[in-house]
Specification:
The longest helix has 15 residues. Strands 1, 2, 3, 4, 5, 6 and 7 form a 7-stranded antiparallel β-sheet that branches. The chain contains 1 helix and 7 strands; from the N terminus they run βββββββα. It has one domain: SH3 type barrels, CATH 2.30.30. The protein is mainly β and 114 residues long. A hairpin with a 4-residue loop joins strand 2 and strand 3.
């Protein structure tokens, strides 16, 4: 799989309670690729949920239905950054547009205070 920044990939993030703890995202869900390290077979991803958050938090980026193969309005949870193995990837859905990628980058810069 040739993964690039902005790709949306379905990922197995694990099953609670053994593979997921606390407020971590789990189950099979779409994730946005932030960076792929092909030689290491690792990628930094942001989990995406279709469940509208109960709170407005600056680390949540709304993604419109139809964007990058998403079947519903969805939310990139930029505070849930994870590094995962390529072995967790299930299928490629599509790619975010440049505006969405820039918005996620902006939120990540602020979140990580880089």
């Amino acid at each position: 799989m040739n993964l690039l920044k902005g790709d949306i990939v379905d990922v197995d993030l694990g099953q609670p309670p053994n593979e997921v703890k606390g407020h971590e995202q789990g189950y099979n869900r779409p994730c946005a690729i932030i960076k792929a390290f092909k030689n290491l077979k690792l990628a930094i991803v942001i989990p995406i949920t279709s469940k509208q958050p109960k709170y407005a938090f600056y680390t949540i980026v709304k993604l419109e239905k139809g964007s990058a193969g998403l079947s519903a309005d969805s939310y990139a949870l930029c505070h849930q950054i994870r590094t995962i193995s390529f072995d967790r990837f299930l299928k490629l859905r599509g790619k975010l547009n440049n505006r969405e990628i820039l918005k996620i980058n902006e939120v990540l810069l602020d979140t990580l205070e880089v």
